[in-house]
Prior knowledge:
There is one protein chain. 43% of the residues lie in helices and 13% in strands. By secondary structure, it is an alpha/beta fold.
Amino acid sequence: MMKQGVSFYSYQNAYRTGKLDMEGMVAEVAKLGCDGVELVPIMTPPTSYPKATDAEIAAWHELMAKYGTRPTCFDSIIVVSPEWAARSTGPTHIGAGYEEQVQLMRDELTLCHQLGFPILRIPQLYGVQMGVFEELLPMAEDLGIQLGLEIHVPMTIRGPKVQNYMEFIDRKNTKFAGLIPDMAIFASTLPVRLVNKVLAQGADEGQVRSIVKAYEVREDMARFGTALREEGLKGTEELLSFAERFVPSEVEEQPAIIPYIIHFHGKFYDVDETIQEHGIRFDRVVPMLKDAGWEGYINSEYEGQRMYLPGEEADEIEQVRRQHLLVDHLLK
């Protein structure tokens, strides 16, 4: 049976500004009538990182018991790649060698286990070498922790990193490694709120529409972007850059990876008053998982905070509530 939870990534602004503390976020999960808790330890840390005290660990488990919630996925972000360092909100490890990467991962596996998380989202996206995960698989197996590769842009289902990871799983014949698709790989169009934002900031409407159309018909957005920049951008840089980065996979490709999926990131950018997310194919992805008999957590991962005009603020709590209603409907 599919279950729902929340990644605390969704509440990042509320946590940063003090609107919600750790207990407040856990309480919001319980209010939704679900129990799954996911966190990025450097963004919403429940304990010291990477090593926690006994008191901190005990307090975390007491919090889970108090609200009837459970840890689902611990999202590692060990940033080794300079490309991702500029986007990181926490410490980075640029230039870390293989042995340092192994030790960083050992520390995270230990903390993951201490906090009771059964899944560790591995940081291959951020530059940690594949050999590190192979070396630490026995430790993960001993601790009962699954190593999950997130299929996050610029990765695609048919891309080499995903295919290589599936081959690794098969070669090791292990149940302690799997895939974590990010729902945004199944985008059908660009986020409506982002489109409206750039238009409100004075972007040329014709150029905006051309970018949206090119994305929807699956043009090569890198090539399209090069040509458009040569013509001259008219307030559309933010939208075009997003379209170039977020290369989608197709929903029809999902059945091939369902046996490998151990967790699902329910990424979304905006659920409107009619309980619709117009840019991501929840309406096809969730029923497909249900029909296949997939069991696991779909955790809300709200990432629309950046798509508001200056002075506006996203209601993260309301957005997560709406997304849960959307998935609830699709699971019936």
